[in-house]
Each structure stands twice: as structure tokens, then as C-alpha cells.
Amino acid sequence: MPPELPALSWILLLLAAALAGLAKTALPGAATIAVALCAAILPAKESTGLMLLLLMTGDLLAVRSYWHDADPVMLRRLVPSVVAGVAAGALLLQVASDSAIRRAIGVILLLLIALTLLQRHRCAAPGTPDAATGHGTASSRPARLLYGALAGLTTMVANAGGPVTSMYFLACRYPVRAFLGTTAWFFFAVNLVKLPFSIAIGLVNPTTAALAAAGAPMVVLAALAGRALADRMSQRLFEPIVIALTVLSALPLL
């Protein structure tokens, strides 16, 4: 049975679950807002474990929804740096305070947003070598190592990897379905890697599992609604929404 919580805490939990589901199938970046809501209900480490389980529920629906839309080459190339980032994040959780970690992640995310927008502006400028493809330096090996390691680190310590990958895939100029499909498969794999680390250090425990079970139906409903929304969303609308949500998701971490 889930633990007893005040009515307001249950409302925040269900809202966080809905945002987790919506983030998986339509609006990447919304998950970090859900993380902030969970942090208002539980201590930071317990909220991290709860969000991991809610997000993994959404992962299953996202992978099923975008089964054939991912970029497998990009996913394979990101694996080594992401695994290294997850391992570093697990170590960091043992030695650093929650508040210090979150502030550092917030600053990193805002810097990445500025870097990505600058890169996109340069690539879009007429006459630049990458104006036609839009990829610029985003698909280069140093960029993959940087974004992959940061995604692994931030998702391990604060479930905040979504904004990092959102900025990276925007820089790569993925269309909507390819963006959502690659993101879905990426976090499905990353969260599976995170799970044993999270169990080992106590983030996932009977309490967080019970709360996640209570919120799972809301994740499913929101994910299905998000899938319908994504089918009607144009690229012109999708990209500004992702950028705005990424900025909004970084602010609570500061």
C-alpha cells in the first residue's frame, strides 16, 4: 500500500504522473517540471526514485508508439558516454548534497540551451556550410561525448536528462516523430541502466514503488493523450514548445 499523504500531495503526485506521460509521447521537457512537483512531496532522493519508476512506465508506451521512428545509429553512438555519465552520477549522489547538485544541473542546462540556440542560429545562416543540413557540429564526436555524458549524469542525479537530450536532438534538426522516437528509445535504455544503480543506493524502495503504482494509470492516460497530440503538431510549433519547456524545467533546479 502507498504511504499516507495529504490531499494536496496526492494532487501534485497525479499531476507529476500526467506530465511524465505527456513528456514521453509529446512534450519532452515536461518531465523535469514533474520532477520539481515530486520534490515538493518527498525528500529529493526519494522523489528521484519515484520519478524514475513513473518515467519508466511512460517509456513503455513511448517505445510502443514510436517503434520505428528512432535513429539507431545515433543511439549506438551515444551509449558509451551516457553509461559513463550514469556511473559518475551514482558516485556524485554519494558525496554531494542535493541542493548543490540541483543548482549545478540548473546552470548546466541553461548554458546548454544558450549553446544549442547559438549553434542553430549559425547553422541556419545563409551561406554557412551546414545551412542545408542543419546539423552543424551537433553530430560530431565531441558533441556526442559532451551531451551523452551530461545526459547520463543529469538523469541519474535528478531525472533531468530530458532537457539535455532535447537540446541535442534539436541541434541535430530531427523532425517531430524522429525526435520523439529517438528520445523514447534513448530513455528506455538509459532508465534500464539506471534502475540497478537506483535500487542499490536506495532511491527505489517499497515506498517509492507503491507511490509509482498509484500514479501509473495517470501516466498511461497522459501518454496516450500525448500520442494523439503529437500526430497533430507541426515542426514549426513543436520546436519552440520544446525550447520553452526546457528553459522552464531548468529554472526550478537553480
TrEMBL record:
GO terms for cellular component: plasma membrane. It holds the Pfam family TauE. The chain crosses the membrane at residues 48-66, 78-95, 101-118, 183-204, 210-230. It is found in: Cell membrane. It comes from the Bacteria. Belongs to the 4-toluene sulfonate uptake permease (TSUP) (TC 2.A.102) family. This is Probable membrane transporter protein. It comes from Actinomyces bowdenii.
